[in-house]
Amino acid sequence: QEEDVNEETILRTKRWIVILGDPGSGKTSFARWLVHHLAQTLLINGQYSTDYGLLRIPILIRIGEFAEILKEQPSLTLYDYIGKHKWMGKTILDNDSISLNYLSHALQDYIKQGQALIILDGLDEIPVSGQRSKIINIVENFVETYVQTPTGISAFDNPHLNRLFDNLSQSGGNQIIITSRIVGYHAAPLAGPS
């Protein structure tokens, strides 16, 4: 736990972030605001860095919607879902000028290049405990594979190594934010791939 740290410092320096809060405390609103702010900074202002550090392509995913698709496609990975995901049941594209496959490949390329900020909203909102553990495992595998330091350290390695070898604002690489209710998160926290 760190005291006296604002969101700019956290976003600039931490690769793996979990935002916990009570229902209605603004976790989803903050996630949506951050995605809008970063997209606007990149698209309208043409900037490649902000007060939050190096600019990454923001990807916002509702875990509940991923869980619904997973019922129909049990072998689907989070990586393969990216770009085909929806927000509140609606496609993330405003028009038909780009295909979902093209978008999916483009976002996956940003992830492969270490230029993405992946926000997983509502980790706790999976009602069935068996499905919750499967989703936790899928998220942990995604983080282990795609959200590492440039030297290959993951969120589940020794935290002292993370502090020594990871300067997110200089090294780049993917970043992840996971939101959850406090109680729901502690019932099934991220612990690392098994």
Descriptive overview:
The chain has a single domain (7-185), classed as Rossmann fold (3-Layer(aba) Sandwich). Helices cover 44% and strands 17% of the residues. It has helices spanning 7-13, 27-43, 63-72, 78-81, 100-112, 129-146, 159-165, 168-171, 182-187, and strands spanning 16-21, 49-50, 53-54, 57-62, 86-87, 90-91, 116-121, 175-181. The longest helix is centred in the last third of the chain and has 18 residues, at 129-146. The radius of gyration is 16 Å and the shape is globular. The model has no long low-confidence stretch (mean pLDDT 80). InterPro entries: NACHT_NTPase, P-loop_NTPase.
Characteristics of this structure?
single chain; 194 residues; alpha/beta; Rossmann fold; four-stranded parallel beta sheet; two-stranded antiparallel ribbon; globular; P-loop_NTPase; NACHT domain-containing protein; NACHT_NTPase
